[in-house]
Amino acid sequence: MTIAEEDYLKVILKLELAQEELHARVTTNQVAEVIQTKPSSVTDMLKRLKEKSLVDYIKYKGIKLTGAGRKQALCLIRRHRLWETFLVEKLGLSWKTVHPVAEQLEHVHSDELLERLDEFLGHPAFDPHGEPIPNGEGKLPGCDGELMTTVKAGKNYTFMGIKEPTDTLLSYLDKIKLNIGSIFHVQDVEAYNGSVELEMGGKVCFLTYDVANKLVVKVNEKHENKN
Predict the structure, then answer these.
(1) How many other CB atoms sit within 10 Å of the CB of residue 68?
(2) Would you list the DSSP string of the chain?
(3) Against a cut of 0.85, is the pTM above it?
(4) Is there a domain that residue 218 lies in?
(5) Which domain, by its residues, includes 198?
(6) Within a domain: 163
(7) Is 107 among the domain residues?
(8) ∠56-60-65 over CA atoms, to 5°?
(9) Smaller CB count within 10 Å for the chain: N or C?
(10) Shortest CA distance to 184 belongs to which of 207, 164, 165, 167?
């Protein structure tokens, strides 16, 4: 497979996982928007992937990965997120800079290297951005977190992950020192615009609804009585 073909499979899988409706098909326009190319170019690639039995593509009805296509895509995501974990935890790179490097490393095909990397890292379930890492069987670990837009004032939460991390969002989180595993207290949730006021380490900050809607958190009951 070419690198471009692998990238398409990964994009389609991520779009499938983001669908609210189970078994919903991904559209050509959705793929084109993510890859930033023309729908006609996407159609050409889908025909190639269909010939290899990696996608089920029906004109005007959309796309779904086949079993073989999903397996390939999950393996790519596994490689990518394990490399991101290695680059941050073992080499000390910033979580803002590892994505493009991991994009290159994910295309290195070596099952032995991948399994040794996983073992070396202690079989992590989530990458530095809190995104789930598929295991060797292609299964994604469950996450019982919720979006920060659903938090309640007066409760404590742990920051679990980021939905669709971007460089600007990661830079902002670095600026306010909100990292994966950080525990914070919700002071208030503004009913008018959904902004969240939180206190962490004695400092208060405000998150807009747009930012809160990309952060995954979990109630931290162990700290409920410590504020």
Answers:
(1) 13
(2) --HHHHHHHHHHHHHHHH-SSTTPPBPHHHHHHHHTS-HHHHHHHHHHHHHTTSEEEETTTEEEE-HHHHHHHHHHHHHHHHHHHHHHHTT---TTTHHHHHHHHTT---HHHHHHHHHHTT--SB-TTSPBPP-TTSPPPP---EEGGG--TT-EEEEEEESS--HHHHHHHHHTT--TT-EEEEEEE-TTT--EEEEETTEEEEE-HHHHTTEEEEE-GGGTT--
(3) no
(4) yes
(5) 146-223
(6) yes
(7) no
(8) 20
(9) C
(10) 207
The pLDDT > 70 percentage for the chain reads 96
Read off the CATH number of the domain in which 38 is found: 1.10.10.10
How many structural domains compose the chain?
Answer: 2
Domain boundary among 44, 65, 86: 65
DSSP bridge pairs for 189: 196
- Of 49, 65, 81, the residue that ends a domain is 65
